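TL;DR need structure tokens for one chain.
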Amino acid sequence: MNVLILGGSGFVSGYLTRAALDRGYGVWTVTRGSRSQDERIHALHADRNDRGAMAALIADLPVRMDAVLDCICYNAEQAKQDMDLFAGVTDRIIVISTDSVYHPAFKRCPQDENGERYLTDGGYGARKREMELAFINGCPPELKWTIFRPGHIFGPGSEAGCFPEQSRQPELLRELRSGKPMRLVGGGKYLIHPIYAGDLVRVMLDCIPNEKTFDQMFCIGGPDAVPNYMYYEILSGLLGVKVTFETIPEEGYLEAHPSSSGHLCDRCYDLSKLAAAGIRLPDMPLREGLRLQVEDLIARGR
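>> reply
TL;DR here they are.
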């Protein structure tokens, strides 16, 4: 099997590249060439926003791809670019969206794929929703898409911390060791549903031949959904320290920090649609995945 990965040197795309290589796939990646990669990879270099360079690069591919996996598709324009470029190169495209597409005031818990309202404020979640709609409404029938909506993605290779005050902060472990209180909006009461990066990419690859996942949207999360404060309790326990919390009042916070809207709500998702498609669900326990992440962070001097 041959796969083309857009963004093959980033956090999630790096996991995806390694997982595809471990399965014996032929792997092509498209990056801007700023990071070194495994010598087994067919590394291609272009800025995805340079349509001419991308078209020339794709035209020179020596083989037809069994799938294109786009880890960095951000908006409707990039979705249309994917459809224009890859309709003649593959019949499968798998794309990462985000749980931030949902309007937080109208979410259910657990939330399924059928959101009643989506963000339209022009921000990150709204642009990802526009990307989804481009595939839903404009993808040629011969190109079968699958889109995933993960929430917080974690694992070795990424900084720790989740929204809104400690998002992927390099100093987070040091702050926990020092006894600095974690500042949590509403006391950290909102649920998060993290997914281990290795689980996410395994599911993406498992979906390639699965016809039940064609032209489908899937929520995805790990086996554990926990209140935000518990995430920090697990981290501190792994460090052998006790965490304390400082509650940030909810009143007025969203008005002062509108970009945090997608995180001031329960982020817990119904995975029954994914299970019904016959895909093995993510199974890395949150504590074990965080243990691996903390060990990696310590090894990197955090």
